[in-house]
């Protein structure tokens, strides 16, 4: 089996409501969909959701890099040889993990369809039967966030991620408001998205929240400040998760050596796809670190890929892949059984891509062969 062509679609996924985090407000989500075709007639889909604040890539740069550099490097290659695919991509471009993730995901979709197996069977087999879905509360007024959380509890949700990262004490008020509204019915997690910046500010927030039962606190300091995370961890018994600070194996090694986190958030867009994500999960397992698979608010394509990784690994204990629930239109048909996610046993990603919706959401496109 050989890859014969690659089609690229630069799309914008419409959100039901703006998504607000510490460093940006998203009115829609820009994404690049990759469609690989082979000489045996198989079609595989992948997705890149780049973020200049996290992966250092933009929507436009990712499209052109895939078209002019990464795509040509894998035409004629056998997608079954996934290590070789990554080697070829790494030779022609340094970094750019979201772009590489799109090709990696499409290759795994092809492999699964070729072998008649879901992707999780290719990377260790199914370990988990289901995961509870965590509802993400974007930054807003405390009362509004608390009201939204209470409404979601009535829908069956049992865990919430609170997005904060503006002023520390304003964030404390947001967290307390949500906690008071759902404390008897759900667990809460707090994601600062680097917004508190320094370890001193983070400790100020943590001390103000001592009376609150928080499942974990995610990335309070800047991404590269792994020393800061280690310092915070030495001063508190609150469970800490690293997100933006973990990109690949080098960062994981430093996190482990410095005892900088209790948990890590693995995202396919940060590390380069399914294959690198599996390697990170194994690396974390050796150090006794629990993992979450998160997302950059992705469509059914990349969200499905993340779920396949999560369902196959014992030390991946939570997921945050709710992008499809936030869109008013999606290119795929990933099914959620709220408040749970359960994967089907269909080959590859296990989803059907709606080509008409894909075309409708496309802003520009191209094809190489």
TrEMBL record:
Residues 142-239 form the Mandelate racemase/muconate lactonizing enzyme C-terminal domain. Its EC number is 5.1.1.-. It is an enzyme of class 5 (isomerase). GO terms for biological process: peptide metabolic process. Mg(2+) binds at residues 191, 218, 243. The keyword Magnesium applies. InterPro entries: Dipeptide_epimerase, Enolase-like_C_sf, Enolase-like_N, Enolase_C-like, Mandelate_racemase_C, Mandelate_racemase_N_dom. Its cofactor is Mg(2+). The keyword Cell division does not apply. The active site is at 163 (proton acceptor), 267 (proton acceptor). Gene3D superfamilies: Enolase-like C-terminal domain, Enolase-like, N-terminal domain. Belongs to the mandelate racemase/muconate lactonizing enzyme family. This is Dipeptide epimerase. It comes from Cytobacillus horneckiae. The lineage of its organism: Bacteria, Bacillati, Bacillota, Bacilli, Bacillales.
């Amino acid at each position: 089996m050989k890859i014969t062509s690659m089609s690229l679609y630069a799309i914008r996924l419409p959100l039901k409501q703006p998504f607000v985090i510490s460093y940006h407000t998203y009115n829609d989500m820009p994404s690049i969909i990759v469609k690989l075709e082979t000489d045996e007639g198989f079609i595989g889909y992948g997705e890149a959701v780049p973020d200049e604040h996290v992966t250092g890539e933009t929507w436009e740069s990712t499209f052109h890099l895939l078209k002019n550099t990464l795509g040509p490097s894998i035409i004629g290659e056998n997608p079954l040889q996934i290590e070789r695919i990554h080697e070829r991509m790494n030779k022609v471009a340094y970094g750019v993990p979201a772009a590489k993730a799109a090709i990696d995901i499409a290759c795994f979709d092809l492999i699964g369809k070729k072998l008649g197996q879901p992707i999780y069977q290719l990377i260790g087999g199914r370990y988990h039967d289901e995961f509870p879905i965590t509802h993400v509360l974007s930054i807003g007024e405390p009362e509004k966030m608390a009201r939204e959380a209470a409404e979601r509890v009535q829908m069956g949700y049992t865990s919430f991620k609170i997005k904060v990262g503006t002023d520390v004490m304003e964030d404390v008020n947001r967290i307390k408001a949500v906690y008071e509204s759902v404390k008897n019915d759900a667990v809460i997690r707090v994601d600062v998205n680097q917004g508190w910046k320094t370890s001193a500010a983070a400790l100020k927030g943590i001390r103000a929240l001592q009376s609150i039962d928080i499942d974990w606190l995610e990335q309070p300091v800047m991404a590269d400040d792994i020393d800061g995370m280690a310092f915070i961890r030495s001063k508190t018994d609150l469970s800490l998760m690293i997100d933006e600070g973990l990109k690949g194996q080098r960062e994981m090694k430093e996190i482990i050596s410095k005892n900088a986190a209790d948990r890590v958030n693995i995202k396919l867009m940060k590390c380069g796809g399914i294959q690198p994500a599996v390697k990170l999960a194994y690396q974390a397992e050796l150090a006794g670190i629990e993992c979450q698979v998160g997302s950059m608010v992705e469509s059914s394509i990349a969200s499905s890929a993340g779920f396949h990784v999560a369902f196959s690994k014992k030390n991946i204990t939570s997921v945050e892949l709710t992008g499809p629930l936030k869109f008013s239109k999606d290119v795929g048909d990933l099914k959620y059984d709220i408040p749970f996610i359960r994967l089907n046993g269909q080959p590859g990603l296990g989803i059907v891509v709606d080509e008409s919706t894909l075309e409708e959401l496309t802003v520009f496109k191209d094809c190489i062969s």
